[in-house]
Amino acid sequence: xxxxxxxxxxxxxxxxxxxxxxxxxxxxxxxxxxxxxxxxxxxxxxxxxxxxxxxxxxxxxxxxxxxxxxxxxxxxxxxxxxxxxxxxxxxxxxxxxxxxxxxxxxxxxxxxxxxxxxxxxxxxxxxxxxxxxxxxxxxxxxxxxxxxxxxxxxxxxxxxxxxxxxxxxxxxxxxxxxxxxxxxxxxxxxxxxxxxxxxxxxxxxxxxxxxxxxxxxxxxxxxxxxxxxxxxxxxxxxxxxxxxxxxxxxxxxxxxxxxxxxxxxxxxxxxxxxxxxxxxxxxxxxxx
Length: 288
Ligand SMILES: [Cu+2]
Known about the structure:
Immunoglobulin-like, elongated, binds copper (II) ion, five-stranded mixed beta sheet, alpha/beta, 2 domains, Helix Hairpins, single chain
Protein backbone atom coordinates (compact mmCIF):
# COMPACT_ATOMS: atom_id res chain seq x y z
CA UNK A 1 0.00 0.00 0.00
CA UNK A 2 2.85 2.28 0.92
CA UNK A 3 4.58 1.71 -2.39
CA UNK A 4 1.42 2.69 -4.25
CA UNK A 5 1.36 5.85 -2.22
CA UNK A 6 5.06 6.35 -3.03
CA UNK A 7 4.26 6.27 -6.68
CA UNK A 8 1.44 8.70 -6.16
CA UNK A 9 3.84 11.14 -4.47
CA UNK A 10 6.46 10.52 -7.14
CA UNK A 11 4.05 11.16 -9.99
CA UNK A 12 2.82 14.30 -8.26
CA UNK A 13 6.36 15.60 -7.86
CA UNK A 14 7.23 14.62 -11.42
CA UNK A 15 4.11 16.28 -12.76
CA UNK A 16 4.65 19.52 -10.88
CA UNK A 17 8.38 19.72 -11.48
CA UNK A 18 8.50 18.21 -14.94
CA UNK A 19 11.30 15.90 -13.85
CA UNK A 20 13.20 14.62 -16.86
CA UNK A 21 13.16 11.00 -15.68
CA UNK A 22 14.10 9.70 -19.10
CA UNK A 23 16.37 12.54 -20.13
CA UNK A 24 19.73 11.50 -21.44
CA UNK A 25 22.00 13.55 -19.20
CA UNK A 26 21.24 13.65 -15.51
CA UNK A 27 21.65 17.08 -13.98
CA UNK A 28 19.62 19.77 -12.27
CA UNK A 29 17.41 21.93 -14.51
CA UNK A 30 16.23 25.51 -14.14
CA UNK A 31 13.07 25.67 -11.98
CA UNK A 32 13.39 22.02 -11.14
CA UNK A 33 11.26 20.91 -8.22
CA UNK A 34 12.09 17.68 -6.45
CA UNK A 35 14.88 15.22 -7.07
CA UNK A 36 16.68 14.26 -10.23
CA UNK A 37 15.63 10.79 -11.42
CA UNK A 38 17.05 7.77 -9.57
CA UNK A 39 19.57 5.86 -11.68
CA UNK A 40 21.17 3.54 -9.13
CA UNK A 41 19.86 1.20 -6.42
CA UNK A 42 21.17 3.69 -3.83
CA UNK A 43 19.25 6.61 -5.34
CA UNK A 44 16.11 4.43 -5.55
CA UNK A 45 16.35 3.57 -1.85
CA UNK A 46 16.92 7.23 -0.93
CA UNK A 47 13.87 8.25 -2.94
CA UNK A 48 11.74 5.57 -1.27
CA UNK A 49 12.85 6.76 2.14
CA UNK A 50 12.11 10.35 1.16
CA UNK A 51 8.60 9.32 0.08
CA UNK A 52 8.01 7.56 3.40
CA UNK A 53 9.07 10.71 5.25
CA UNK A 54 6.81 12.80 3.02
CA UNK A 55 3.83 10.61 3.92
CA UNK A 56 4.65 10.88 7.65
CA UNK A 57 5.17 14.65 7.51
CA UNK A 58 1.97 15.27 5.56
CA UNK A 59 0.00 13.08 7.98
CA UNK A 60 1.37 14.96 11.02
CA UNK A 61 0.70 18.33 9.40
CA UNK A 62 -2.89 17.39 8.53
CA UNK A 63 -3.47 16.02 12.05
CA UNK A 64 -2.19 19.23 13.69
CA UNK A 65 -4.16 21.37 11.23
CA UNK A 66 -7.30 19.36 12.13
CA UNK A 67 -6.67 19.88 15.86
CA UNK A 68 -6.20 23.62 15.34
CA UNK A 69 -9.41 23.97 13.34
CA UNK A 70 -11.27 21.91 15.99
CA UNK A 71 -9.97 24.11 18.82
CA UNK A 72 -10.69 27.36 16.97
CA UNK A 73 -14.28 26.33 16.22
CA UNK A 74 -15.15 24.56 19.45
CA UNK A 75 -13.38 26.65 22.07
CA UNK A 76 -13.66 30.22 20.90
CA UNK A 77 -15.25 32.74 23.26
CA UNK A 78 -18.66 32.57 21.60
CA UNK A 79 -18.96 28.78 21.41
CA UNK A 80 -17.40 28.17 24.83
CA UNK A 81 -18.01 31.16 27.12
CA UNK A 82 -17.02 29.35 30.35
CA UNK A 83 -13.59 27.72 29.80
CA UNK A 84 -12.55 24.58 31.66
CA UNK A 85 -9.88 25.07 34.38
CA UNK A 86 -8.21 21.67 33.69
CA UNK A 87 -4.40 21.97 33.75
CA UNK A 88 -3.15 18.37 33.72
CA UNK A 89 -4.21 15.19 32.05
CA UNK A 90 -1.88 12.26 32.72
CA UNK A 91 -3.04 9.98 29.92
CA UNK A 92 -2.93 12.79 27.36
CA UNK A 93 0.60 13.78 28.43
CA UNK A 94 1.83 10.18 28.22
CA UNK A 95 0.31 9.84 24.75
CA UNK A 96 1.76 13.06 23.36
CA UNK A 97 5.20 11.97 24.58
CA UNK A 98 5.01 8.34 23.50
CA UNK A 99 3.52 8.84 20.03
CA UNK A 100 6.32 11.13 18.74
CA UNK A 101 8.87 8.65 20.15
CA UNK A 102 7.16 5.85 18.24
CA UNK A 103 7.14 7.93 15.06
CA UNK A 104 10.89 8.50 15.44
CA UNK A 105 11.46 4.76 15.93
CA UNK A 106 9.44 4.06 12.78
CA UNK A 107 11.70 6.51 10.92
CA UNK A 108 14.93 5.13 12.44
CA UNK A 109 14.54 1.59 11.14
CA UNK A 110 14.34 2.30 7.37
CA UNK A 111 16.84 5.14 7.83
CA UNK A 112 19.51 2.83 9.24
CA UNK A 113 18.72 0.22 6.61
CA UNK A 114 19.43 2.76 3.85
CA UNK A 115 22.62 3.90 5.61
CA UNK A 116 23.94 0.34 5.76
CA UNK A 117 22.86 -0.28 2.18
CA UNK A 118 24.91 2.72 1.02
CA UNK A 119 27.87 1.80 3.20
CA UNK A 120 29.54 -0.87 1.10
CA UNK A 121 28.91 -3.60 -1.42
CA UNK A 122 29.86 -7.21 -0.69
CA UNK A 123 30.83 -8.28 -4.20
CA UNK A 124 32.40 -5.43 -6.11
CA UNK A 125 33.09 -6.02 -9.80
CA UNK A 126 35.70 -3.27 -9.84
CA UNK A 127 37.17 -0.46 -7.77
CA UNK A 128 37.67 3.22 -8.51
CA UNK A 129 39.66 5.47 -6.22
CA UNK A 130 38.59 9.09 -6.20
CA UNK A 131 40.96 11.75 -4.90
CA UNK A 132 39.82 15.32 -4.35
CA UNK A 133 42.22 18.20 -4.99
CA UNK A 134 42.00 21.98 -4.97
CA UNK A 135 40.29 22.13 -7.46
CA UNK A 136 39.83 19.03 -9.55
CA UNK A 137 39.26 15.31 -9.10
CA UNK A 138 41.60 12.51 -9.99
CA UNK A 139 40.42 9.00 -10.73
CA UNK A 140 42.47 5.84 -10.23
CA UNK A 141 41.66 2.38 -11.56
CA UNK A 142 43.62 -0.02 -9.31
CA UNK A 143 42.27 -3.02 -11.25
CA UNK A 144 43.84 -1.69 -14.46
CA UNK A 145 47.52 -1.10 -13.74
CA UNK A 146 46.65 1.81 -11.45
CA UNK A 147 45.61 3.86 -14.45
CA UNK A 148 45.18 7.42 -13.18
CA UNK A 149 43.91 10.61 -14.73
CA UNK A 150 42.79 14.06 -13.65
CA UNK A 151 39.37 15.51 -14.33
CA UNK A 152 39.19 19.28 -14.77
CA UNK A 153 36.31 21.59 -15.51
CA UNK A 154 35.97 22.69 -19.14
CA UNK A 155 36.03 26.47 -19.50
CA UNK A 156 32.87 28.14 -20.73
CA UNK A 157 34.57 29.22 -23.96
CA UNK A 158 35.66 25.66 -24.72
CA UNK A 159 32.29 23.97 -24.28
CA UNK A 160 30.96 22.03 -27.21
CA UNK A 161 27.33 21.92 -28.34
CA UNK A 162 25.16 20.34 -25.65
CA UNK A 163 27.76 20.33 -22.89
CA UNK A 164 26.40 21.91 -19.72
CA UNK A 165 28.26 24.88 -18.22
CA UNK A 166 30.00 24.30 -14.86
CA UNK A 167 29.34 20.55 -15.06
CA UNK A 168 31.46 19.43 -17.99
CA UNK A 169 34.96 18.04 -17.44
CA UNK A 170 37.82 17.18 -19.79
CA UNK A 171 38.18 13.56 -18.63
CA UNK A 172 34.95 12.03 -17.32
CA UNK A 173 34.92 9.14 -14.90
CA UNK A 174 33.97 6.22 -17.14
CA UNK A 175 32.36 3.12 -15.65
CA UNK A 176 30.47 0.10 -16.94
CA UNK A 177 26.69 0.24 -16.41
CA UNK A 178 25.08 -2.51 -14.37
CA UNK A 179 28.23 -3.40 -12.41
CA UNK A 180 28.88 -3.00 -8.70
CA UNK A 181 31.64 -0.46 -8.38
CA UNK A 182 33.47 0.08 -5.12
CA UNK A 183 34.30 3.76 -4.66
CA UNK A 184 37.21 4.70 -2.43
CA UNK A 185 37.61 8.35 -1.58
CA UNK A 186 40.48 10.37 -0.26
CA UNK A 187 41.86 13.87 -0.60
CA UNK A 188 45.21 15.39 -1.42
CA UNK A 189 44.63 18.62 0.52
CA UNK A 190 41.39 19.70 2.21
CA UNK A 191 38.03 18.00 2.68
CA UNK A 192 35.99 17.67 -0.51
CA UNK A 193 32.78 15.76 -1.08
CA UNK A 194 32.03 13.70 -4.16
CA UNK A 195 28.31 14.02 -4.85
CA UNK A 196 26.20 12.80 -7.78
CA UNK A 197 22.49 13.25 -6.97
CA UNK A 198 21.02 11.00 -9.68
CA UNK A 199 23.22 8.13 -8.46
CA UNK A 200 22.55 8.70 -4.76
CA UNK A 201 26.23 9.11 -3.91
CA UNK A 202 27.60 11.80 -1.61
CA UNK A 203 30.66 11.04 0.44
CA UNK A 204 33.39 13.19 1.96
CA UNK A 205 36.92 12.90 0.58
CA UNK A 206 39.07 13.48 3.65
CA UNK A 207 42.88 13.88 3.71
CA UNK A 208 44.57 10.98 5.50
CA UNK A 209 41.48 8.83 5.44
CA UNK A 210 40.05 6.33 2.97
CA UNK A 211 36.26 6.41 2.79
CA UNK A 212 34.26 3.76 1.03
CA UNK A 213 30.92 3.57 -0.70
CA UNK A 214 29.65 2.02 -3.92
CA UNK A 215 27.54 2.63 -6.94
CA UNK A 216 25.76 0.63 -9.60
CA UNK A 217 24.65 2.75 -12.53
CA UNK A 218 21.45 1.16 -13.80
CA UNK A 219 21.74 2.22 -17.42
CA UNK A 220 24.26 3.79 -19.79
CA UNK A 221 24.19 7.58 -19.80
CA UNK A 222 25.86 10.72 -18.55
CA UNK A 223 25.48 11.76 -14.94
CA UNK A 224 26.61 15.03 -13.42
CA UNK A 225 27.60 16.05 -9.91
CA UNK A 226 29.62 18.60 -7.99
CA UNK A 227 31.96 18.92 -5.05
CA UNK A 228 29.68 19.34 -2.04
CA UNK A 229 32.07 20.39 0.69
CA UNK A 230 33.23 24.00 0.68
CA UNK A 231 36.89 23.50 -0.20
CA UNK A 232 38.26 26.88 -1.27
CA UNK A 233 37.72 29.61 -3.84
CA UNK A 234 37.27 27.27 -6.80
CA UNK A 235 34.94 24.90 -4.95
CA UNK A 236 32.25 25.63 -7.51
CA UNK A 237 34.56 24.77 -10.40
CA UNK A 238 35.42 21.12 -9.78
CA UNK A 239 32.40 19.32 -11.25
CA UNK A 240 31.91 15.59 -11.71
CA UNK A 241 30.95 13.92 -14.97
CA UNK A 242 30.32 10.19 -15.07
CA UNK A 243 29.84 8.31 -18.28
CA UNK A 244 28.30 4.88 -17.84
CA UNK A 245 28.88 2.66 -20.86
CA UNK A 246 27.68 -0.76 -21.91
CA UNK A 247 30.12 -3.57 -21.14
CA UNK A 248 31.52 -3.67 -24.70
CA UNK A 249 31.89 0.09 -24.99
CA UNK A 250 33.58 0.15 -21.59
CA UNK A 251 36.09 -2.51 -22.64
CA UNK A 252 36.87 -0.49 -25.77
CA UNK A 253 37.26 2.72 -23.75
CA UNK A 254 39.52 0.95 -21.26
CA UNK A 255 41.94 -0.16 -23.99
CA UNK A 256 42.17 3.36 -25.34
CA UNK A 257 42.37 5.02 -21.95
CA UNK A 258 45.10 2.73 -20.66
CA UNK A 259 47.21 3.81 -23.59
CA UNK A 260 46.32 7.47 -23.27
CA UNK A 261 46.89 7.68 -19.54
CA UNK A 262 49.86 5.30 -19.31
CA UNK A 263 52.67 6.82 -17.24
CA UNK A 264 50.49 9.79 -16.50
CA UNK A 265 53.00 12.06 -14.84
CA UNK A 266 50.66 15.02 -14.64
CA UNK A 267 53.06 17.30 -16.50
CA UNK A 268 50.20 19.50 -17.49
CA UNK A 269 48.90 20.13 -13.98
CA UNK A 270 50.45 23.58 -13.27
CA UNK A 271 49.23 24.83 -16.63
CA UNK A 272 45.67 23.73 -15.91
CA UNK A 273 45.63 25.27 -12.47
CA UNK A 274 46.85 28.51 -14.04
CA UNK A 275 43.99 28.41 -16.54
CA UNK A 276 41.54 27.98 -13.67
CA UNK A 277 42.71 31.13 -11.97
CA UNK A 278 40.66 33.37 -14.19
CA UNK A 279 37.50 31.86 -12.67
CA UNK A 280 37.77 33.40 -9.24
CA UNK A 281 40.23 35.57 -7.43
CA UNK A 282 42.78 33.00 -6.36
CA UNK A 283 45.07 34.40 -3.75
CA UNK A 284 48.82 33.96 -4.04
CA UNK A 285 50.25 30.58 -3.13
CA UNK A 286 46.93 28.99 -2.27
CA UNK A 287 47.33 26.04 -4.61
CA UNK A 288 49.64 23.92 -2.57
CU1 LIG B 1 36.14 20.39 -3.37
